[in-house]
Amino acid sequence: MAYSAAPVSGSSARPEIAPISLKAIAPWAVFFGVLMLVLLYFVGAEQGATSLLSGASVHEWLHDGRHLLGFPCH
Asked: Which Pfam families match (predicted)?
């Protein structure tokens, strides 16, 4: 017997994908948004008068990232 590779009419070859609701995505979007703002602060502004942490350790760890993103630091 020969079998056809084509799907039988009425059955789908691909499973249906359920849409994700905004209520399910919103907490993750807020979390990653806040995380990105904190990261942007530490890369771009954690030095000098706006420093939250004393010393220059954060500045030295993120120094090359500042130059890569175009933030002045000297």
From this structure: CbtB
